[in-house]
Design a protein that fits this description.
By secondary structure, the chain is α/β, with parallel strands linked by helices. It is 41% helix and 20% strand. The protein folds into 2 domains: 4-271 and 476-488, Aldehyde Dehydrogenase, Chain A, domain 1; 274-423 and 429-461, 3-Layer(aba) Sandwich (Aldehyde Dehydrogenase, Chain A, domain 2). A 7-stranded mixed beta sheet has the order 14-15-16-13-12-17-18, sandwiched between helices. A 6-stranded mixed beta sheet has the order 9-8-7-10-11-19, sandwiched between helices. The longest helix has 21 residues, at 115-135. The structure holds NADP nicotinamide-adenine-dinucleotide phosphate.
Length: 499
């Protein structure tokens, strides 16, 4: 039998081997290089505060070198046969899958999520490469007579051109492949700027993509500690044709303003404030299982995390009691340890923000039913927490919690539930638990949301168009819609061939 200590030693050995072999430079034009000026920055393990390694810190000059490479590679990549682009993406899917354990360990180390969840992200992230390997050969246009019958309309698609991709730390692999997959399938080259806190996964991905046959210059990766200063020149350069961003609404708004300078195509996957509605006719056990997934996956650090639990007053007591029973079973600890289901938050700032939101809720009348205290252990841990009765003024009703905190509010009828659910600037995802199909479908029409989980707490899927309405974003990722974001539509008007 393997003991926890033996397992700890195994993980430590694997960690050393993995970090020892990892390229930590900038990946530009198919080569690894140091940053101009040679600056590097430290990447930390949020479970311990230990420095894992250092990474080259790209400057604005490096960013432009990366764009030079993407621009040079653009024409040949766009001309590469769709089948060949698809085959390369398929090999990339297989290569990421073959190294899923390495990707998982890196994500756990740099971001904190439990290994089992990181393994799940490795599968989910790889799937975008497979999905878009299949989409690469499905791009088509149309040919039809004009309304007056005297000319013909030919519509074709072509790649947008070099893209700047900016990704967050919470899903270090999947947020990158959800952009790189469709961009490459469409025939676009990319410069990826991963989050400062989690650059290692993106660097391993660059290596794996190159091994899978992605030509030099098609994918360039530039970690940096100066996000705005480094990506700013890219957004002002006329060779850049598109910006795809995943991150907070606050940064997204300012990037939209920057992108306006060149009228760039933009895809914006921004923040959320998901309502989780439990109606009186819900299967309460299913709602509790859904709540655990929608809240505690990724430690609550997900744009899709349930942020406001709105529960009908007739089932609130049963829902709360059953949820508390499950929450008591959450095991917090470093993500590499066996049986851990809740890792640390990503950094001190994030942990402090969660603690602040809970204190604010308590000041607004919330009762703490479980958790709510910052532990004294090293690392940025916050316990699984359940609150009830915070009044409408509490900040956590308006802001993303991004932590393992459930806040329960009751409602009396459907109208009140819908009013509360829609009372937010965000509109990414909503969750609805009801046994009534009519009500479920009605919710899909009245809730201001880009996605709806009907009796389900997790609905992210490469075959589905992911994205939000209102201030949760613009555009969709995944599904067939995902590749359209990287294609331009070209119309050719043809004189009547019968004339
Ligand atoms: P963030 O602070 O907005 O950062 C996201 C990315 O933007 C990071 O790479 C960051 O670099 C970079 N960035 C920050 N300021 C920038 C600037 N002025 N110019 C250019 N780039 C800049 O968000 P985060 O804290 O990493 O991620 C959490 C947020 O992402 C949450 O709001 C969450 O809801 C959202 N999210 C949305 C989706 C979705 O699909 N809708 C998915 C996942 C996450 P640094 O790392 O150097 O700061």
């Amino acid at each position: 039998m393997t003991t926890t200590t033996q397992r700890g030693e195994d993980v430590r050995d694997r960690q050393e081997a993995l970090l020892g072999a990892l390229h930590t430079g900038l990946f530009i034009d198919g080569e690894w290089r140091e940053a101009a000026g040679g600056r590097r920055f430290e990447v930390e393990d949020p479970a311990t505060g230990e420095v894992l390694t250092t990474v080259a810190d790209a400057t604005p000059e490096d960013a432009l070198t990366a764009l030079d490479a993407a621009d040079r590679a653009q024409a040949a990549w766009a001309r590469t046969a769709p089948r060949e682009r698809g085959e390369i993406l398929r090999r990339a899917f297989e290569a990421v899958t073959a190294r899923a354990d390495d990707f998982a360990l890196l994500m756990t180390l740099e971001m904190g999520k439990p290994l089992t969840e990181a393994r799940g992200e490795a599968t989910y992230g790889a799937e975008f490469l497979r999905w878009f390997s299949e989409e690469a050969v499905r791009v088509s246009g149309r040919y039809n007579p004009a309304t007056d019958g005297r000319s013909r309309v030919l519509v074709t698609k072509r790649p947008v051109g070099p893209c700047v991709l900016i990704t967050p730390w919470n899903f270090p692999l999947a947020m990158a492949t959800r952009k790189i997959g469709p961009a490459l399938a469409a025939g676009c080259t990319v410069v990826l700027k991963p989050a400062r806190l989690t650059p290692l996964t993106a660097l391993l991905l660059a290596d794996v993509l190159a091994e899978a046959g992605v030509p030099a210059g098609v994918v360039n990766v530039i970690p940096t500690t100066e996000a705005g200063a480094t990506t700013g020149p890219l957004l002002r350069d006329p060779r850049t044709r598109k910006l795809s961003f995943t991150g907070s609404t606050e940064v997204g708004r300012s990037l939209l303003a920057d992108a306006a300078g060149q009228v760039l195509r933009t895809s914006m996957e921004l923040g959320g404030n998901a309502p989780f509605l439990v109606f009186e006719d819900a299967d309460v056990d299913a709602a509790v299982a859904g709540a655990m997934a929608a809240k505690f996956r990724n430690g609550g650090e997900a744009c899709t995390a349930a942020n406001r639990f709105l529960v009908h007053e007739d089932v609130a007591e049963e829902f709360t009691a059953k949820l508390l029973e499950k929450v008591r079973g959450v095991k917090a600890g470093p993500g590499v340890e066996d049986g851990v289901t809740l890792g640390p938050l990503v950094e001190r700032k994030q942990r402090d923000k969660v603690a602040e939101l809970v204190d604010d809720a308590v000041a607004h009348g919330a009762r703490v039913l479980h958790g709510g205290e910052v532990p004294q252990a090293p690392g940025w841990f916050y316990p699984a927490t359940v609150l009830t009765g915070a009044d409408a003024g509490a900040r956590l009703h308006r802001e993303e919690i991004f932590g393992p905190v459930v806040s329960i509010t009751t409602f009396r009828d459907e109208d009140e539930a819908v009013r509360l659910a829609n009372d937010t600037e965000y509109g990414l995802i909503s969750f609805v638990f009801t046994r009534s199909l009519d009500r479920g479908l009605r919710m899909a029409e009245v809730l201001e949301t880009g996605m709806l989980g009907l009796n389900s707490g997790v609905i992210s899927n490469p075959a589905a168009p992911f994205g939000g309405v209102k201030q949760s974003g613009v555009g969709r990722e995944g599904a067939h819609e995902g590749i359209e974001e990287y294609l331009e539509t070209v119309y050719v008007g043809i004189a009547d061939p019968m004339a």
